[in-house]
User: What shape does this take?
Amino acid sequence: MDSSDLHGYARVLNSLNTLNSVPQGKQLHLLFLKRGVLFSTLTIANRLLQMYARCGIMDDARNLFDEMPHRNCFTWNTLLEGYAKSGRKNDSLDLFYSMPHKNEFSWNVILSGLARAGELDVAQQLFVEMPNKNTVAWNTVIHGYARHGKSRMALVLFKDFLRWETVESGGILRWDPFVLATVVGACSDFGTLDLGKQIHARMIIDDVKSDSVLGSSLVNMYGKCGDLDSAGHLLNAMEVPDDYSLSSLISGYANCCRMDDARRIFERKSNPCVVLWNTMISGYVANSDAEEALIFFRSMHKQGVVGDYSTFSSTLSACSSIGIVKNCIQVHAQANKSGIIYDLVVASALIDAYAKCGSHIDACNFFSELKIYDTILLNSMITIYCSCGRIVEAKRIFDNMKLKSLISWNSMMVGLSQNGYAVEVLQLFCTMNNDNNLSMDKYSLASAITACAGIASLELGEQIFARATVIGVDSDQVIATSLIDFYCKCGLVRNGQKLFDQMTKFDEVVWNSMLVGYATNGFGIEALALFREMRRVNVTPNEVTFTAVLSACDHCGLVEEGKKWFYVMKNEYCINPGIEHYSCMIDLFARAGCLKEAIDLIDEIPFQSDATMWSAVLRGCIENGEKSLSLKVAKRIIELDPRNSGALVQLSGVMASTGDWKESALVRQFMRETRIRKNPGRSWCNI
Assistant: This one.
């Protein structure tokens, strides 16, 4: 084989750089063996080795390397570089330590591979051992720390680099733009604006030529650190600002709630790329302007810009904030057309949006279409299934999860607790407690305490609280709030009050817990006094607060007080009354004999009244001797719920009390024929 053929084959080998090229490379390998030139011509063997390494076929590369009778520095470095780029850290280190001679390229390659793999301690150790450091090696290690979130260490190394550079260059710094871009990026991540300004000032003094990468890094640094004026000046100084710089400044303005300025920067670009659209959409979402985010998304779609996973996840977040399911359906359709709907990030955002818009059915239906899941998505589905009472599906997901995070356990426990499965919650809690690989947190313990409250198990609840004390979360507000609820449901209101008085109250949740405890145990006066104190210290009440307050008024028969707070809730706090608020007021009126007001309030309800509300009126009619009205109300209850045993029994009693024994007997006969049985009373005790 003459030299011209060898040069031709060498050029062919140089052009092979993908997996699809490997069969052709192996044919040349066989040809070289047959012609006897593979091991007699080192250049050919090196080119073939380089081809295998470049294509990522490292086992074949190693076999060839081991068969080569002659090797030079290029041979060793080629295999080393292949291992480094393939992420084979151990093979890289073994080869590096066995190399007879190492040059600068060898050190740079091993450092680059380790830094890329996140093995920063090993890289740092080798860097210290490196006999003759160079700018590439310094930048590799600095960039490795910055890339893996260790910005502080990157900046420490940069200072060491400056001292080394000063010595190497005889006192004159030779600023490397790539090193500077890396360090400026580290300043951005670490939030050290002052150091970033010092570096920038030194660049100006030393007349460092800034390329597009360094310029973009400076804009990003000033934008992230909140110095938007400096970022704007740098951007204006650029002849043609790149998309990265524009995106950085837009993001900076968005972080400072200056969306008008962000929009001004966005509009400087005649044909903005998807990154700029994404930055604007996510900026509006972060600034609670979901409507504008959707407007931008629609404009982007009209201009023919195809969205990516970031576009759709931000837009679906806007849909979640608005709460209108129609928006979710529209974005769902567009994501489907774009072929990105089954991306895990987008799929998770869509399911979350459907759930937050109250369309659990759509969330569940879409989930059934997915083939790939992650733990975060499955945790969300456990919560969603539990929210709509589909405990069987939630448990199936939980039981089939190969990797359960602490959030998985907590989601399942909370879901079971919310649906009244207190015993199952405690069974899960015991399983967690017996697993040494699982560490509980405040939410695990709070769920277990809530379950104990559901079955009034005082002894077990206090044992779990003791566990919270051992872990060190006994004073946490989540635990304390659950414990107040627990004591009140066990009838130990004074214990709950003592705990409430001792704790720091950050928001309305703990106040609500104590208010509900007072109200449900008949401490109406105390509940109202606590509510006045809550208002005095400027804690804003919510729907739960007013449910407790109205319930307290109901228990104490405080009609005027109840009417007052019902009016304040609607007009002062702009809270639309829910079914619980109406039920409390109707029961309050009925107990006090204000039957006309109770019926008038039922007629005012903007949604369908239920049999429970009319049952409260019926009790009031019977207690106040309104027999004729009792008959009308009882018949109304039966119209709403024909199998309501309580209403039928009370109707029979009313007829008997008026001497209408025949009609009373007919009602009883109807109950027997339709097999409607009176619900028996139940009680709970620990044995």
Q: What stands out?
A: The mean pLDDT is 86. The radius of gyration is 36 Å.
